[in-house]
Design goal:
three-stranded antiparallel beta sheet; 4% strand; 5 strands; two-stranded antiparallel ribbon; globular; 54% helix; mainly alpha
């Protein structure tokens, strides 16, 4: 079964309203928002958003700004305009920018950022969250999105290793039906013990609100693409397992911006497996995303409006997620 035309049309309309806001938000120099104050936040997801929405001129202006103001010869994104927000998810912006640049054909950027990103991949296949500590923890979010960048640039062997890391993390789960742990420490294994006030940084619990739901969705979105790239359906089945907790969490999930990647992953795995439960999950998430859209076409993070730069980051992400969902829900790949 595939999604009905109604949900697809609504997702497309929301995507177009979002990209219209994002185009208006671009500065004459190609950047978005107050990067001088807030760093990468308002720009690193926007390149992919512009590219997937066919905003070629806006995308190329932003790409050139990134190349001239952030990109080093070895592919790092650094300097005073980077900011400090992503110091504990160091490669995450690189992964977003790599996919966006590659979709756009800006190989002058993606050929460098993917080489740098590979420096963060551990022997486990996972991607560490810090640049300068080789023994830093690795996690599902950074590895999943880095995996998408690897596939986009044709690095299938390294993407398989990232998939194997996600399998290792899954197989170490003690009770995944009620708590999904997503942080892994080389030499120690899956991190299941931590201070209670750091719980949301380590796991998704089904009985607590405001969880990091996006981890399960990010894993599934990447694993669906890995299944397509390799022809190995076992990766899609692993992605389906990562999504199972989404059926057990509080309904509050649908009121948060963190639900977006769950819809992306559900739609992507449904495209391959035809699982009707995942179709229903994707459609419910799609309706939740539409309900959260502001009258001006933008989206805010959970908790409401904070500043224009956070609004730009969330809007760019939702434009990408909606585009991915429209594609996956429109036609089966199996």
């Amino acid at each position: 079964m595939v999604a009905g035309t109604s949900i697809i049309s609504r997702l497309e309309l929301a995507r177009e309203r979002g990209i219209a806001w994002l185009v208006e938000a671009q500065r004459p120099d190609g950047a978005i928002g107050d990067v001088e104050r807030h760093g990468l936040g308002p720009i690193y997801k926007a390149l992919w958003a512009y590219a997937c929405a066919g905003q070629t001129a806006a995308a190329n202006r932003l790409a050139t700004w990134i190349r001239e103001n952030l990109l080093t010869e070895d592919g790092d994104l650094t300097g005073p305009l980077r900011g400090r927000v992503h110091d504990r998810a160091y490669g995450y912006p690189h992964a977003w920018i790599t996919v966006g640049a590659h979709k756009l054909g800006r190989y002058d950027i993606s050929r460098r950022t993917i080489e740098f990103l590979l420096l963060l991949q551990h022997d486990t296949g996972g991607f560490r969250v810090e640049r300068d500590r080789e023994d830093a923890v690795q996690d599902v979010l950074n590895t999943g999105q880095a995996g998408n960048a690897l596939l986009a640039t044709g690095r299938v062997r390294e993407a398989r290793a990232a998939g194997q890391f996600l399998r290792t993390v899954w197989e170490a789960q003690p009770y995944p039906e009620r708590e999904l742990f997503f942080v892994y420490k080389p030499g120690e294994g899956l991190r299941t013990e931590f201070a209670e006030d750091r719980q949301r940084l380590h796991s998704i619990r089904i009985d607590q609100p405001r969880q990091s739901y996006f981890n399960s969705g990010m894993a599934a979105a990447f694993l669906a693409r890995l299944a397509m790239a390799t022809g190995d359906g076992a990766w899609a089945q692993l992605g389906r397992q990562y999504l199972e907790i989404s059926f057990n969490v509080l309904d509050e999930m649908y009121e948060t911006a963190q639900v977006g990647k769950v819809g992306w992953g559900a739609a992507a795995i449904h495209q391959i497996t035809g699982d009707e439960r995942l179709l229903a999950l994707a459609e419910r998430v799609g309706d939740a995303i539409i309900a959260q859209q502001q009258p001006n076409g933008a989206w805010d993070n959970t908790g409401g409006y904070v500043n224009e730069d956070i609004r730009a980051e969330v809007t760019a992400e939702f434009v990408v997620i909606l585009d991915e969902m429209v594609g996956a829900l429109s036609a089966p790949a199996r």
